Amino acid sequence: MRDAFLRVLTQAVERDPRIVLVTGDLGFGVLTEYAKRFPKQYINAGVAEQNMTMIACGLALEGHKVFTYSIANFTILRCLEQLRNDVCYHNADVTAVSVGGGFSYGQLGMSHFATEDLAILRALPEMKVVAPTGIWEAEEASRAIIAQGGPAYLRLDKGKADSGPRDGESFVLGKSRMLRDGKDVCFIGTGAVLSEAMKAADMLAADGISARIIAMHTVKPLDGAAVAAAARECGGIVTVEEHNILGGLGGAVAEACLEAGGAPGFFVRIGLADHYPTVVGDQHYLRAQYGMDAKTIAEKTRAAMTKKRP
Amino acid sequence: MMPDAGRPGRLNDPDSLRDLARRIRINAVRMTSSGKSSHVGSVLSMADIMAVLYGQVLRVDPRDPKWPDRDRFILSKGHAGAGVYAALAETGFFPVERLKTHYQNGSTLSGHVSHKGVPGVELSTGSLGHGLGVGTGMAYAGKLAGHAWRVFVQMSDGECDEGSNWEAIQFAGHHELSNLVAVIDYNKIQSLARVEDTLRLEPFADKWRAFHWAVEEVDGHDVEALSACFARLPFNDGKPSVVIAHTTKGKGVSFMENSVLWHYRTAQGEEFKAAMAELGVSDA
Q: Which of A89, A223, B148, B160 sits between 20 and 30 A of A283, alpha carbons compared?
């Protein structure tokens, strides 16, 4: 996803002198070519994310289109107040790009797990929150954000779901994509962990359970219509995110369902159960360890369906 | 275009600047009294700086607040917003009458300075340690495009406790942003106590120098000294400039001067009348 973003950004920079990429001293080997080709549109702010975000805001207020770049939480949490007061309140064209959503840096430990970002950034007015599920979405989301402007948060995963486009499909920020239709359950996933929901759907299909799969690449603004339709048309909803179960995709979907006037038949949030992981491992290992793998998703879905029909 | 072509009503004589400073103080005492709001001491300490900047130094045009070639001014010590509102009103950005709405229900003149609906305000602040970093980004953009305009950031001494400022100071020095000017209202008193008893800033000027800034120290209540100091900008063609203005908190009202109390206290009743009398208003 990171390479997809940089590919799209590089194409855009060639045409648009307003674009500036500001890194917080990260991107070893990845940003070298960009920095060499576009020295006037590249700033290494050093290990100073508050200032990185403040200068991004200052540049944006002077007409630039700015992307701050770092890994995991560094573009958003250390500088959260800068995002709130400077970027969002001034509606500045700044996009915070985080390379490494969820457990992307699974071996590096808790400091590098971005597992509260969606909930926290969703609460900022003006902020768009985007977590592509696969490479195509990462490319298209990057393109859309460049076109529409910030404030935005782009969460890029190391993993990817097989969520490529159908023939002629176009991508719209804030509009979810139904990858598969079904009626017994609807999986709504954001980020690459959607791949686990897709595998879970295959497992359930063997039992005759049909699952709708929705790629919710934009957590804010949320595609409430798709959520309401799922609540209405499917047996229940299971949200899947590599994130705390509080306040992120699961919370957003629950809010949308109830406000639309229809609670789903059953509702399960797959995610981190409001605690900090204390072991490390690769992304797949941690998903399994913390209950976000396909097998657990399928089991929890079956259990919820059974409970619903005593 | 001459640098000051868009700059109407520039005040060139010290007496006019002193009078502007007095009017800023009068407005500030009125606004903080009617709103029962805090921070009058913080406004009074920077009133002379505001008068010299808005009356003389800043290339701004009240008829065209978004004039692209204007100097940018950011109040980083946002709690002294009443001082900027007063300076803007007194120099024609909006009617002085509007200052009466400060702190009132439904007003856009918030206690901490806001750009929403207020002509002439570049940046909303209130949380300390933001203004210099955003100003640094603006200065970087200005330099990148080769613009002549400058960025002025009015800071407090207490807010230099914020680490974010030192990130910006380091960045601006490294990038030699000579179009950036920080002005410190060094009144030596912060929210709860004296600066030297809270977190020592000294040797303050040396710290800025060590971060590759050009430093000048000045009496922040001497409008002629301030004028002369700002006229020397940039102090060094390859460095950002900082004006460390030595000031007295609460300056201009004897019983508010140099007192921690008047960071938060608001003048009411007889205190209000006494303060206004000292500022030359006998019928307050």
A: A223
Residue A57, chain B, CB below 8 Å: the answer is yes
Sequence-ordered list of residues with C-beta below 8 angstroms from that of B232, at least 6 positions apart, any chain = B216
Residue of A25, A44, A51 to mutate for B, most B C-beta atoms under 10 A: A51
Per residue in A129-177, pLDDT (tens digit) is 999 999 999 999 999 999 999 999 999 999 999 999 999 999 999 999 9
Q: Given strand B214-219, what is the order of strands in its sheet?
A: B72-75, B151-156, B180-186, B241-246, B214-219
**Inter-chain residue contact B140 with A55, CB threshold 8 Å:** yes
- Compare all CA atoms of chain A with the CA of B141 and give the residue at the minimum distance: A59
Residue B173 has pLDDT above 90, yes or no: yes
pLDDT for residue A268 is more than 80: yes
Q: What is the pLDDT of residue B249?
A: 96
Interface test with B, best of A62, A83, A88 (most B CBs within 10 A): A62
Question: What pLDDT does B3 receive?
Answer: 46
Taking the whole predicted model, whether its pTM rises above 0.90 is answered as: yes
Q: How many Å lie between the alpha carbon of A62 and the closest alpha carbon of chain B?
A: 6
Q: B6: pLDDT confidence band, cut at 50, 70 and 90?
A: very low
Judged by CB atoms closer than 8 Å, whether chains meet at A58 and B136 is answered as yes
Contact criterion met (CB < 8 Å) for A58 and B127: no
pLDDT band at residue A310 under the 50/70/90 scheme: low
Domain ranges across chain B? 14-278
What's the gap in Å between the CA of B138 and the closest CA on chain A?
Answer: 4
> Are A51 and B163 a contacting pair at CB < 8 A?
no
* CATH node for A177-302: 3.40.50.920
The ranges of chain A annotated as CATH 3.40.50.970 are 2-156
pLDDT attached to residue B35:
87
Task: Determine the CATH number of domain B14-278.
Answer: 3.40.50.970
Q: Does A46 touch chain B (CB under 8 A)?
A: yes
Question: Tokens representing B97?
Answer: 């009458």
Locate the DSSP E strands across chain A: 19-23, 42-44, 65-71, 94-99, 128-130, 152-156, 177-180, 185-189, 211-215, 218-220, 237-244, 267-272
Q: What is the pLDDT of residue B188?
A: 97
Locate the chain A residue with the closest alpha carbon to B76.
A86
Contact B141 A58 (CB under 8 A): yes
Contacts of B126 in chain A (CB under 8 A): 85
Which residue is associated with the tokens 């549109």? A41
Local confidence band at B9 (pLDDT 50, 70, 90 cut-offs): low
pLDDT of amino acid A120: 98
Verify whether the Cβ–Cβ distance B124 to A48 is below 8 Å. Answer: no
Cα separation, B129 vs B113, in Å, equals 14
Question: What CATH number has the domain spanning A2-156?
Answer: 3.40.50.970
Q: What integer best gives the mean pLDDT of chain A?
A: 96
